[in-house]
Amino acid sequence: MVRAQTPEQFGWALRWVQVPLAFAFVSLIWFLWLRFGTCSLWLAVSAGGLRVLAMLLGFWFKPNVHFSKITEVRQVSLLGGETVSAPIGIVSPWALIPQLSAWV
Domain limits of the chain? Predict the structure, then answer.
């Protein structure tokens, strides 16, 4: 995503990055629950389920679950001279689901 030059490239990358993120998120939740018993089962299931739902919705909606439309990709300079891409667009109302999975 940091090297995307067009809105389509950024949307495609943001859609596919959800797959390893969902796997890592759900794996971490279940590891913590099984190994340490640090949360209740319903909390682990709801957080993991919301993350998987967010991943699936990312493939359902175009360009992805976070944006209804990406209108522009701007190049932003960071400290040290590195340049990264930043999206400009309309935030999707469905973007609340991935955020909710992190809050749970």
Answer: 7-103
